[in-house]
Specification:
The complex is a heterodimer of chains A (235) and B (270). By secondary structure, chain A is α/β, with parallel strands linked by helices. Chain A has 6 helices and 10 strands, in the order βββαββαβαααβαβββ. A 5-stranded antiparallel sheet of chain A has the order 5-4-1-2-10, covered by helices on one side. A 5-stranded parallel sheet of chain A has the order 6-7-8-3-9, with helices on both faces. Chain A is globular. In chain B, strand 6, helix 7 and strand 7 form a beta-alpha-beta unit. The chains are: A alpha/beta (235), B alpha/beta (270).
């Protein structure tokens, strides 16, 4: 079986010019992920779990190694793929779920949620119907659907964010503590959605503050261990 | 300064099979002793928003003017994926350049005086664009001007007011209406919200985002304001002293800037 993702000797550090320093994140990460598999990243705070997720998503540029992502048209190395290819994969196949919503002025909650479907070419009224269904599923009150989330509480913003992030099934989902500060109802909705996506073959890599939340979904775990934190480099 | 290990070199696009809408290669320009652009190359794909950031004198506005064929480089090649204009657009004669800009490229300047006739009506300013393109029916001119002003969220009860009498935010909306009236293939924005009040700026940006989303417009936006670029752009090019120092996906440029200068810019942002 062809995996979704093959990560080979992936390394990341940050070069901080104003300090003349390299901040070490991780070295030689290796793992393979199959369709429908759920991989949990574990390790103490600050060990680089979120950094790894962001490097896989290419919000951070890797320093070395490969991130082979298998598409229907062959494999592509996310570590060095062109920016436009990464942007295209993010629209169609690779999702990133955080606990933070990037709300925009004067865009209604239901429009924010419908946007990924609209971008994928779904007609407006159909996308809006789907968006409302997911807002309801995550427990956002009906009177808020047409309101602007810029003014919502953190918890309500997070629900809008999750509905948006999970509305369009992706092939690979990166989950960065999506359950943090969710109420019980929304957490249950999230876990139901993740279980459905997993059953549909979506591969997932997640960081969870309370892995117990997703205990039933986890297939494998990777333990990240602390390495030297920083090293001085020649000035 | 410290020695930097070069980041991994990125590959040519493999999955993106649509060719770029805009391709600029090796553009250089000097004004006397001042080098405004040194060997600048850029590509923009259909439906994409490219942000160009840099401080005053970085060459970012000069580059945008080149894209609008207002200024010619000393060297360089510029192509838009238009079947009727396959060659280097810098080789076009003055008349062909003017037609191309009027009909296929829209631009919004920071200074509305550059883009608008301040003593004509707002609707007249928009209609002028349509006249250049050959529209002669008064009803059609007015109807299309109205449509473009409406899409730019300009209050239609003021469409016969002169830009002179309008607020800065409204003037920018008239410029925007004029720019999009002919549904250009490329929209250029030169500091479109600089100088506006913060709340007005947010509303104009929101209009721009909305238009971009609804019409899948290809946009190049220049700003010294990182917040504006972060809101608008899919990809970002960082310029300094006429050169491109770094480019990447917007989130990567803001979260993991590689170049010393980009790190300073990002960290200096409030």
């Amino acid at each position: 079986m062809i995996p979704v993702l093959e990560v080979q000797d992936l390394a990341k550090h940050f070069q901080m010019h104003h300090l003349g320093q390299k901040l070490h994140a991780f070295d030689s990460i290796n793992f393979t992920l199959q369709a429908g598999e759920f991989l949990l990243l574990r390790g103490p705070n600050g060990v680089g779990k979120s950094t790894l997720l962001r490097t896989l998503y290419r919000s951070y540029l890797p320093r070395a190694g490969h991130i082979w992502y298998h598409t229907t048209e062959g494999r592509i190395d996310l570590a060095t793929a062109a920016d436009v290819d990464i942007a295209l994969l993010r629209r169609r196949e690779i999702g990133f779920v955080t606990q933070f919503l990037i709300a925009r002025p004067r865009v209604a909650a239901e429009d924010i949620v419908a946007e990924p479907l609209r971008r994928a070419g779904m007609p407006a009224h159909e996308a809006l119907g789907e968006a409302r269904r997911w807002l309801a599923e995550f427990g956002v009150k009906r009177d808020l659907w047409r309101a602007y989330p810029t003014t919502f509480s953190g918890g309500e913003q997070q629900k809008v964010n999750l509905a948006r992030a999970l509305i369009l099934p992706q092939r690979l989902l990166l989950l960065d503590e999506p359950t943090a500060s969710l109420d019980a109802g929304a957490r249950a909705a999230l876990i139901r959605r993740l279980a459905d996506l997993k059953a549909a073959g979506v591969a997932m890599i997640g960081v969870f503050h309370h892995p117990g939340d997703v205990a039933g979904l986890i297939d494998r775990k990777i333990e990240l261990t602390a390495q030297e934190v920083s090293e001085d480099v020649a000035v | 300064m410290i020695a930097t290990a070069p980041p991994l070199a990125l590959q040519a696009p493999q999955l993106m099979t649509t060719p770029p809408l805009l391709t600029m290669t090796g553009v250089s320009r000097r004004y006397g002793d001042v080098v405004a652009l040194r060997d600048v190359s850029a590509t923009v794909y259909p439906g994409e928003v490219l942000g160009i950031v840099g401080e005053s004198g970085s060459g970012k506005s000069t580059l945008l003017r080149m894209m609008n064929l207002e200024d010619m480089p000393d060297a360089g090649d510029y192509r838009l994926a238009l079947p009727d204009l396959p060659g280097n657009l810098f080789d076009l004669d003055r008349f062909a350049r003017r037609m191309l800009c009027a009909t296929r490229i829209g631009i919004v300047y920071q200074n509305p005086h550059l883009g608008l006739l301040m003593k004509h009506t707002s609707s007249g300013n928009v209609a002028e664009r349509l006249l250049i393109a050959g529209e002669r029916s008064f009803a059609a001119l007015r109807g299309r001007a109205r449509e473009a002003l409406d899409a730019s969220e300009f209050p239609l009860d003021r469409m016969d007011a002169r830009p002179l009498e309008l607020s800065g935010g409204m003037q920018q909306r008239v410029q925007l209406a004029k720019a999009i009236a002919l549904e250009p293939v490329l929209l250029l924005l030169d500091e479109p919200t600089t100088g506006l009040d913060v709340s007005v700026q947010a509303l104009v940006l929101d209009t721009l985002k909305r238009l971009q989303r609804d019409r899948a417009m290809t946009i190049v936006i220049v700003s010294h304001d990182l917040g504006v670029i972060r809101t608008m752009a899919d990809r970002v090019m960082v310029m300094r002293r006429g050169r491109v120092v770094e480019q990447g996906l917007a989130d990567q440029i803001f979260q993991d800037p590689q170049h010393d200068y980009t790190q300073q810019l990002v960290h200096a942002k409030l």
